[in-house]
Amino acid sequence: MNNQDAAKKKVAIIGAGVTGINAAWKLIDLGYDVDVFEKRDVVGGVGTSVMKNGYAFEYGPHLFHTAFDDILDDFKELMKNEPYEKTILDRQIKYMGKNYKYPLKLINVLKGLGFLTSIKCGFSFSYSHLKLKLGLTRDNTAEDWFINRFGKVGYEIYFKDYTKKVWGIDPTDLSPIFTNSRIPTISIRKMIKELLVPKKTIIKETDNEGDHIYAPDINYIYYPHKGMWVLTDKIKDKVLEKGGRVHYGADVKKINFQDSFAKSIDFSIKGVEQTQEFDYIISTIPLKGIIHLIGLEKPEDVIEASERLKHRAIVVACLVINKPKVIDAQVLYFNDKNFNRVTEPKNLGLKVDPDSHTVILVEFTCDVGDDVWNNSEKYSDYVIDELIKEKLITKEEILSAHTIKYPHAYPIYSIGYEQRLKSIEKFFSRFPNLYTTGRQGLFTYVDKDICMKMGKILADYINDGNDMKQDIPDIGGEKVFF
Ligand SMILES: Cc1cc2nc3c(=O)[nH]c(=O)nc-3n(C[C@H](O)[C@H](O)[C@H](O)COP(=O)(O)OP(=O)(O)OC[C@H]3O[C@@H](n4cnc5c(N)ncnc54)[C@H](O)[C@@H]3O)c2cc1C
Fold this sequence. Notes:
The chain is an alpha+beta fold.
């Protein structure tokens, strides 16, 4: 059933990242009257680019890929007049002094380890696989998951320290749900096939679902020549063309209710306080933020749960280099440095003007308020020193250095996070016309295409008149909204 009164219905969307702005586009297409409230002065959230002196910097590597045909169609429609590159993903890892394809292939792992450690690794891998097959072990933590899939020796060499560096907590404190749904496993059959069967040319433009839709086998990646900001900017143009409104610098203060129905929003823009009524309110901001805005009494356990859902922040050192190219990959991982990886967006498709310059992005994951977050320039200097040591750049080639930061980069799936989310989900089920969705709104580790899909599914759900939060749709078994 289509909602015949769509034209009269007003929707507020809080947060103009990929999820929020795409939901706005889809709702406007269905005839809704949409206002988007964004606290910053740009759309795109963590998925946009920060422009400095004409150069586009992103929060780490941002490439578009998707397993959904309709989302790829949307991407192409948005890019109708914007050139973009379609390439094969080329990630590498600097390992034992040499660059290898990332993730590491078994043969390279064995070469690097030497004979004795390889044998130990092989035994430990087989022992773990056997135990798992016989049901003699369980995944209680991410550490268990790694050991059960890769063996204890492999886990200690490859995953233990890297996981701690990225997530800031020990793998024993990380939920196995994360590893299970977001990390591809080693399949012996697949490894043997890779060794024996020559790779066929890829014709499929979308991803293969692989083990899990949230960690697909990527066939092609897409990247706009001007930078990833173009994607959300084009969606924003669609919203504005069709009469939608995006309010920048919006300070949303409170959501007012009548019984369990969200009725209006108190907000201020440039110091002017206002209240507006809406039929539906969609939040795409972090859960702690939206729960705080709900103008009703909140159960203690819900407040506590939202406070214990922590994010890992990101600091990116962005360097402009006076040479056409720095690395021979799109992304280069390092497991022996304090930073995680180096990205050269030019190798993804970014056009840098002049072409004799390039841009590189070097990421640190950190916590808001720690030394990396507070003293990011110091870490930018560390990056420069390390890249000089690696002979990737020289001091003279550096034209400028900047740092950019985002507080809610990665949701930390710590042990017990799923129970915390459950109590929040139950709380939101009370409110038929208030939805929380997206990477922040669901505290979920997803890519842009899934965020776009979530916005689209939610728009259709509202339009189908399913206002009572019955039969909430899912993607790969995970709910699209609470
Ligand atoms: C390092 C890194 C690399 C990534 N690489 C890729 C990749 O290669 N490919 C890919 O597809 N995806 C990638 N992703 C994931 C992708 O960027 C995100 O999933 C997506 O951009 C999240 O969009 P969102 O709208 O859900 O959240 P966000 O982008 O966080 O948007 C939330 C918005 O809400 C606004 N907001 C917050 N609080 C308030 C408030 N109180 N009032 C109003 N507005 C508010 C924020 O300013 C922001 O604009 C990457 C993510 C990271 C961190």
